[in-house]
Design a protein that fits this description.
By secondary structure, the protein is mainly β. It is built from no helices and eleven strands. Strands 2, 4, 5, 6, 9, 10 and 11 form a seven-stranded mixed beta sheet that branches. The chain has a four-stranded antiparallel beta sheet with strand order 1-3-8-7, with no helix packed on it. A hairpin with a 4-residue loop joins β9 and β10.
Length: 113
């Protein structure tokens, strides 16, 4: 199992980023996926979850209305579109594979002017 996140970076408040998590080593379309984040000195927290077929989406309050999780099962990739970013969104963002229970290495998102 391998999960590789990308798309993080430095963005100004109000800006947007799209994170990607490329999966390999398992049948991607069979499993729900989530995005989590961990800010310095804080616990890792759930951001969003998508079901295996992409029909069920759940969001933490922190991202509702600003973040969109999606997946492309043909490309074995899950995405997190983040809009209207705030400084408090600064964190390392991880993708998580349900069922098997595996994490990616994370990608840093920094929101700062």
């Amino acid at each position: 199992v391998q999960l590789v996140e990308s798309g993080g970076g430095l963005v100004q408040p109000g800006g947007s980023l799209r994170l990607s998590c490329a999966a390999s080593g398992f049948t991607f379309s069979r499993y729900a996926m989530s995005w989590y984040r961990q800010a310095p000195g804080k616990e890792r927290e759930l951001v969003a979850t998508i079901s295996s077929a992409g029909s069920i989406l759940n969001y933490a309050d922190s991202g509702k209305g600003r973040f969109t999780i999606s997946r492309d099962n043909a490309k074995n990739t899950v995405y997190l579109q983040m809009n209207s970013l705030k400084p408090e969104d600064t964190a390392v963002y991880y993708c998580y594979l349900h069922g098997i229970g595996s994490w990616g290495q994370g990608t840093q998102v920094t929101v700062s002017s």
